[in-house]
Amino acid sequence: MKIQKAAVIGAGVMGAAIAAQLANAGIPVTLLDIVLPDNPDRNFLAKSGVERALKARPAAFMDASRASLIQVGNLEDDLKKLKDADWIIEAIIEKLDAKRDLWAKVEQVAKKTAIISSNSSGIPMHLQIEGRSEDFQRRFVGAHFFNPPRYLHLLEVIPTPKTDPAIVKTFSEFAETTLGKGIVVANDVPGFVANRIGVYGIVRAMDHMQRAGLTPAQVDQLTGPALGRASSATFRTADLSGLDIIYHVSNDLGKATPDDEDFTLTPAFRTLVEDKKWLGDKTGSGFYKKTKDEKGKTKILNLNLDTFEYEDQGKVKVAAVDAVKGRPLAERVKALYGAEGKEGEFLRGVMNDGFWYAAKMAGNVSNRLQDIDNALKWGFGWEQGPFETMDTLGVQSVIANLEAEGRTLPPLLAAMKASGRDAFYQGGEIVTPEGQPTPYQAPYFILTDLKKDATKIVKKRAGASVIDLGDGVLLAEWHAKMNALGEDQLRTVQDAHKLVQDLGYHGLVIGNQGENFSAGANLPLILSQAQADEWDELDDMIKQFQQVTTSLRFSPHPTVAAPFGLTLGGGAEFTLHADHVVASAELYMGLVEVGVGLIPGGGGTKEMLLRFTDQQQPSQRVGATLLPAVQRAFELIGTAKVSTSALEARNLGFLRDTDTVAMNKNHILEDAKRQVLALAPGYVQPTPRQDIPVMGDAAIGAIKSALHGMHQGGYITDYDLVVSEQLAKVLSGGTGNNRTAKVSEQHLLDLEREAFLTLLGKKGTQQRIEHMLKTGKPLRN
């Protein structure tokens, strides 16, 4: 069973977004919807779905050209097109009768090997397929995406008792590898996993908030990043999801679950939905309301639940949150759980509700504790799931708190109390829903699981490590804040190269599994050295940086980079020099140094010029015909262009056609390791190029002429002009060269270093760096 073509039925927000994600993965997809009466365009709804996905922000498509993989149609004229689909998924209205009617029609035309799925968020899967043939029921499995499907990692796969296990395996592997999703196998129960526990948390948070006398804005401070959860926290998430959705889901869950699972909405929440019709972002008003001030600047107003008036409360400050800023997650969680006053009272109430309910749901919504943790992490943006959080606090301590509140322990916690075990995850084991230890199975090749085995760490520094990935491959892993590049990171790559050679490894991977691959150089260090006039030290540091980045290409063994997330500045320069790149599809890569008044100094300027000149025909690599390649590199670097996906990174030139794009970020290290092993047999060490054609003064003149026109027109600032002229000098190969000159890579690296230091010594650059460090935004001086 292979899924090579797909069909989506229902072109609403979710259906169109699912179709877009299939197209992102390179899967041709047919998108069908109903025919609107009195509309001459019978495919209007499907077309509108694609157009909406193209306009969506954040973008639903990784590259707008992928929309061409979607063929639109309607359910009256084009139902027969489903016969070509290997996977058919519906995302229609949440009504059981409508879904049953649809499946009766689909069964008549779908091929006998097609996998059939529903994206329903609440209607049990087994109820939808009553009356269908045994063969249809065997191939049916729930597939519940979270919105937006491109960005939220979670996909709940929900088999029914009739689903063939082979179908579950095939579909899960496809969704994980091809679509890039994090798979949680859920039981076919009301709410499945994430919504069952997540909506319970929102409902209980509303109740505890009013008991404690807090505001929605204060609660969002307490339940957001400070607690290791998404910045949208509780009530901003409710607004984004739609208060009507939460209203209906909580009511449905309240009817379908036991009395002790309290999904009762507060009177205030009911007033918002039933009387005010304030449903969150979709109506413009919910717990928050966006408005404009007199200058046209967006302002967020907060709802006063006593008066139901919106108020400008300014920047909300919460003492318990301020007290833990800058501390590691484990310390923050412990401090917040033990906080005093009404803030602590609220947090303990909400967290204890969550702990109790997650333990009660173990074995009910899913048969593995890690699936519950992963569902909350991947579906709601938590850093830790409920069981991981209890491990942080100490399970026995949590149990004591629950008993002090007079709660009856769920069987899982009762078993933990009896065993005295203080952690669910411990020593490579995790407990089952019955409280019995069992070997832990990671969902992917995940670096954090390697760290549990200290023997895998070959060499460690404070900000980076060398790790044995097995099969003769080493990993140079950075683990500093934002993976900013400094001494530890550079020396670790050097350590890794030496270890590969000394110990006979096959090759090296550069990667990690932090939040981002690397946000670039250590700006505070660079600025402090410049302001202290430590120019010799800076010159040596940049030379070292260039030597390390270029070592990825000119070492006697293969190196493969595995970038993801923010891959900026120096992070991009490391990536550019690898023999091969395995990039996460969500790659935000760019040479952004001009934003702080610099140019790329680690070989990035050289590399883009080299790539773009090599892409020209041999006859164009001389004289004025070189100018388009120079201009392309100048525009890319001079505008600090950042890709919005790996597909765009390839279009921009940051990735080569031969580089690999992986839809699932958690697969890139394993894929990179395989690439090293594929390159290693017969690998020949490359030598630096000596034949790079440059235009010299002719290119400098052409670029300067364009720059001065832009400056006079007000398109660039005075200091933009200064930075751009230094960039032009490097891309032209330096002054004095003629139109037929050829230079070495080292020549361009020397020019880079000279320009970098020249700009760093200027007041305008230092002002830009200071402003970026202070505000996080570029200064246009």
Automatic annotation (TrEMBL):
CDD domains: crotonase-like. Residues 1-25 form the signal peptide. GO terms for molecular function: (3S)-3-hydroxyacyl-CoA dehydrogenase (NAD+) activity; NAD+ binding. Residues 480-605 form the Enoyl-CoA hydratase/isomerase domain. It comes from the Bacteria. It catalyses: a (3S)-3-hydroxyacyl-CoA + NAD(+) = a 3-oxoacyl-CoA + NADH + H(+). Residues 191-289 form the 3-hydroxyacyl-CoA dehydrogenase C-terminal domain. Keywords: NAD, Oxidoreductase, Signal. GO terms for biological process: fatty acid beta-oxidation. SUPFAM superfamilies: 6-phosphogluconate dehydrogenase C-terminal domain-like, ClpP/crotonase, NAD(P)-binding Rossmann-fold domains. Pfam families: 3HCDH, 3HCDH_N, ECH_2. Residues 5-188 form the 3-hydroxyacyl-CoA dehydrogenase NAD binding domain. PANTHER family: 3-HYDROXYACYL-COA DEHYDROGENASE FAMILY PROTEIN, 3-HYDROXYACYL-COA DEHYDROGENASE-RELATED. This is 3-hydroxyacyl-CoA dehydrogenase. It comes from Deinococcus soli.
